[in-house]
């Protein structure tokens, strides 16, 4: 079966977050299920350089200016690349300009991506389309309202907080029928809603974890779209993300000081002093070492970590912070490091190799998100034997088994959970975790369980494959 995936980024070609990791890893997992995925991405400079002089697969109608699709292979992916220099031949971040502001024409840029997806799906004979997040949201509108042949669509929400809303003046430029400008279409509180379009026109809607699929149908978690999602509840489901275990493998990872595996985890300990050294932390082998790797943002709960820092320090712990994001949080992290030398270290920015050393050298990894559709940090932490301390929300709740009394007795705990959005509860969880780390037998069992977790795509790929076959069969 042939499926066209549509997304604004894909690892290893272009990446700003977890979306790229999913889009890059899922095709390989689906190949084992008999699903051949071709991935449509914009022709950013890095992508165009990666495919070189790839042949033209399709010349597109001149709806948004000159554009065509090139077919190539790069980064282990079969690709269709939207060559539209007027939109994508720009340096840096895919979505923002040099000063960090959104490109003014983002609405047109990603409308062109959705239009190209619909044209390719029909002209090149794909049996289903898999669109990811708001940037691919208009694929469904073009497939349902302008395409000459019906191609079924699955739409995946990676984060409902990012919705792609644009001023109503964009609508006449999209080339869609006037009837699409209504509540049961693209109109969303007087704006053009890209994410809403994806949800409205999809045959099936998936999210990246089962718990998140439930949360987004509530007023608290639905971010204004809960009514639509409740109305379409029969087609909404959650399929848990995974990670590529060949990319994330502590037995082969060159970023580690010493490599290790689930079968022989003992060499892992040598990575802890290396991590302490990199972050300027005291070389104390018995100190519980926590790491935070990710965006410094309200959603990710970095402010909660800073509020709970006294509890961590009272427990004799150390903290390594690696990330970038909100300027005020960056300053607070640097301030905490300056105030607590040898106990707190902060690196503002992103360094892939250093992130991997964090996962391999920390005793535990913090993922205190206020909401988290799935999260990949906790999956990487499990894979590298750093039992995660997570908020009990979204995919974090689905992937980590709390080390409560019953789980410890049963020998099945893989980390620590706490109620989300509460610094006091996070502080209590940090102190509980520090106590577990000092109980060598208990922590060895938890770490062994973490290392044994199946965080691959295998189970989820089977679910996606079944979904694609189901919608293709229903399409006749």
From TrEMBL:
The keyword Iron is annotated on this UniProt entry: no
Pathway field: Glycan biosynthesis; glycogen biosynthesis
Residues reported in the UniProt entry to bind ADP-alpha-D-glucose: 15
Top-level enzyme category: transferase
Protein keywords: Glycogen biosynthesis, Glycosyltransferase, Transferase
Single GO MF descriptor: alpha-1,4-glucan glucosyltransferase (UDP-glucose donor) activity
Entry annotated with the keyword Transferase: yes
GO cellular-component term (any): cytosol
Enzyme Commission designation: 2.4.1.21
Highest taxon above the source species: Bacteria
Domain Starch synthase catalytic: 2-230
Catalytic activity: [(1->4)-alpha-D-glucosyl](n) + ADP-alpha-D-glucose = [(1->4)-alpha-D-glucosyl](n+1) + ADP + H(+)
Pfam families reported for this sequence: Glyco_transf_5, Glycos_transf_1
One BP term from GO: glycogen biosynthetic process
Domain Glycosyl transferase family: 279-431
Signal peptide: none
Family: Belongs to the glycosyltransferase 1 family. Bacterial/plant glycogen synthase subfamily.
Function of the protein: Synthesizes alpha-1,4-glucan chains using ADP-glucose.
Protein name (record): Glycogen synthase
Source organism of this protein record: Roseicella aerolata
């Amino acid at each position: 079966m042939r499926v066209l995936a549509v997304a604004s980024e894909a690892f290893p070609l272009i990446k700003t977050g977890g979306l790229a990791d999913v889009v890059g890893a899922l095709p390989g997992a689906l190949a084992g299920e008999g699903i051949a995925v071709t991935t449509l991405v914009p022709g950013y400079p890095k992508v165009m350089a990666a495919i070189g002089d790839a042949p033209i697969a399709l010349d597109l109608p001149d709806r948004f200016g000159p554009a065509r699709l090139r077919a190539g292979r790069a980064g282990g992916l079969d690709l269709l690349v939207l060559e539209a220099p007027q939109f994508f031949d720009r340096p840096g971040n895919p979505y923002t300009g040099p000063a960090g502001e959104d490109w003014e024409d983002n609405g047109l840029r990603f409308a062109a991506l959705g239009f190209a997806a619909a044209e390719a799906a029909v002209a090149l004979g794909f049996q289903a389309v898999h669109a990811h997040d708001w940037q691919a949201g208009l694929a469904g509108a073009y497939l349902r309202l302008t395409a000459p042949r019906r191609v079924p669509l699955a739409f995946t929400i990676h984060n409902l907080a990012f919705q792609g809303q644009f001023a109503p003046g964009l609508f006449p430029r999209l080339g869609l029928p006037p009837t699409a400008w209504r509540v049961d279409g693209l109109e969303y509180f007087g704006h053009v809603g890209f994410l809403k379009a994806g949800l409205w026109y999809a045959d099936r809607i998936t999210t990246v974890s089962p718990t998140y699929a439930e949360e987004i149908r509530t007023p608290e978690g639905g971010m204004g779209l809960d009514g639509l999602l409740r109305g379409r509840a029969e087609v909404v489901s959650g399929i848990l993300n995974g990670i590529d275990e060949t990319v994330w493998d502590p037995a082969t990872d060159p970023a580690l000081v010493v490599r290790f595996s689930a079968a022989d985890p003992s060499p892992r300990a040598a990575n802890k002093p290396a991590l302490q050294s990199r972050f300027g932390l005291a070389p104390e082998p018995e100190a519980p070492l926590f790491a935070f790797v990710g965006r410094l943002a309200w959603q990710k709960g970095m402010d909660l970590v800073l509020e709970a820092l006294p509890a961590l320090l009272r427990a004799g712990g150390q903290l390594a912070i690696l990330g970038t994001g909100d300027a005020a949080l960056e300053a607070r992290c640097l301030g905490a490091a300056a105030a607590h030398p040898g106990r707190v270290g902060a690196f503002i920015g992103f360094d892939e190799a250093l992130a991997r050393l964090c996962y391999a050298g920390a005793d535990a990894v913090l993922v205190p998100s206020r909401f988290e559709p799935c999260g990949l940090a906790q999956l990487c932490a499990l894979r590298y034997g750093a039992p995660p301390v997570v908020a009990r929300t979204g995919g974090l709740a689905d992937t980590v088994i709390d080390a409560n009394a019953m789980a410890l007795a049963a020998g099945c705990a893989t980390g620590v959970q706490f109620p989300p959005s509460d610094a006091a509860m996070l502080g209590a969880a940090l102190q509980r975790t520090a106590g577990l780390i000092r109980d060598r037998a208990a922590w060895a069992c938890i770490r062994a369980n973490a290392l044994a977790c199946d965080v691959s795509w295998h189970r989820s790929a089977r679910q996606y494959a079944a979904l694609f076959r189901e919608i293709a069969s229903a399409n006749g």
